[in-house]
Amino acid sequence: xxxxxxxxxxxxxxxxITKGHLHIIKRASRMVDKLVIGVADNDRKKPLFSHExxxxxxxxDIKNLKDKACExxxxxxxxxxxxxxxxxxxxxxxxxxxxxxDFDYEFQMTGMNHRLAPDIETVFLxxxxxxxxxxxxxxxxxxxLGGDVEEFVTPxxxxxxxxxxxxKAR
Length: 170
Fold this sequence. Notes:
The protein is of the alpha/beta class. It has a single domain (about 5-165), classed as Rossmann fold, CATH 3.40.50. It is built from six helices and five strands. It has helices at about 20-30, 50-65, 80-85, 100-115, 135-145, 155-165, and strands at about 5-10, 35-40, 70-75, 90-95, 120-125. It has a five-stranded parallel sheet with strand order 3-2-1-4-5, sandwiched between helices. The protein is globular and about 50 Å long.
């Protein structure tokens, strides 16, 4: 790999991936030569979708994503994030922030990651105004209660939600 070739990792559970995630991915892709989307296999979060389903949803949405500025690869992982980042030869981790509550958690995680891997930087990207309130948890709840989530997720994700929760909204 070339000396100046920069790899970044954007990790997440993506249960499901939202348009807010996709907006962060587009922006992060402008800062590195290769962006790895790390889909965490974390059953402690009790995801609605299986790990394989989440990886496939992310891959499908990335395949259809316009305005990618670099190569983007979707890879599953079930290890410590900094170990995964090292395996990917990443120099930075991208994290999205929506609100102050996100910052508290992310601040602690960044401190711990820095202690474990001081050579890997964490880059915070603030969510755009229109995505600050969007979360995968809200999307699942709104959909399950019959609300329209078309503004927050892609048709691919809506199709997957319908498969899991049935046709709810129109």
